[in-house]
Amino acid sequence: xxxxxxxxxxxxxxxxDAGPRRRRAAATPPDPVARRRGRRENxxxxxxxxxxxAGFLLLTAGPMVASLYFAFTDYNLFDAPRWIGLDNFSEMxxxxxxxxxxxxxxxxxxxxxxLKLGLALGVALLLAQxxxxxxxxxxxxxxxxxxxxxxxxxxxxxxxxSDDAVVDRVQRAVGLDLGGWIGDPDLxxxxxxxxxxxQFGAPMVIFLAGLKQVPRELYEAAEVDGAGPWRRFWNITxxxxxxxxxxxxxxxxxxxxxxxxxxxxxxxxxxxxACGPADGSxxxxxxxxVQGFENSRMGLAxxxxxxxxxxxxxVTAVLFWSQKHWVHYEEGAR
Length: 334
What we know:
Largest sheet: 2 strands, antiparallel
Low-confidence stretches: 1-16
Number of domains: 1
CATH architecture: Orthogonal Bundle
Radius of gyration: 31 Å
Structural class: mainly alpha
Order of helices and strands: HHEEHHHHHHHHHHHHH
Distance between the termini: 80 Å
CATH superfamily: MetI-like
CATH class: Mainly Alpha
Oligomer: single chain
Strand order of the largest sheet: 1-2
Strand content: under 5%
Shape: globular
Number of helices: 15
């Protein structure tokens, strides 16, 4: 009798070869039509981005690189720059007026930023409560932030705080004979602080958005435990909105270091000085403008600008370092 022969095992190599065939198929070059379509889409994207790229290179990156070079030169906008190394920085540190501008700017930042953020948070807490005409109040408080940085408002602000103007008359009515703030080197800076505090609308809106994200269940549980309004604010509200608070602190601090237009307009011409009487409103950027465009010391002004950039970067780094001690993020949100 013959034996039966089966060929079933011969199918195994076919199954084993299926994997390499699939890999070879996957490694097949893409269709040339698809590649051309991809190149056209990339080209279209770069064409849409080209205005921004050109603006960044010509108006931001290019001037920054040029100013870095000018910071080490003697340049007056009319003659060719002459390399002088670190002389601009040495002259800057030895200039008492430069040191005064640094102290005025720091004083402005230390006073104006906390007052502005405190008022913004306080108004945001009030607007977070349900009440009639809530939309109107939000728009009314936000409006100064839209127009506060304009030249016209700065001119009006200068008129309000001048001698025998509204503020001066109100002071005399309550028995204070301080005179106009614009002409007083000890008070003009506080007029600038009042102007920046008046523009609290932008951080207020950000605070309001953060307050809306705090779960109401936390307040209800705290009320059941007998926690009062202050304790609820300190133990619930502040920790929950601490990322928003950090964002506002960072943003407003940087903006405060960059103050120029309001200081130059409000203080311009007061006491015959471009930056306030007796340099009362001589903030850093105002003195930079004086050196660059009034004294034609563009090299020195470039050195001052880069030093300001480094100072703001250092302050920003310190704020980011400090956030681990007081900013509370949700798990995995950092």
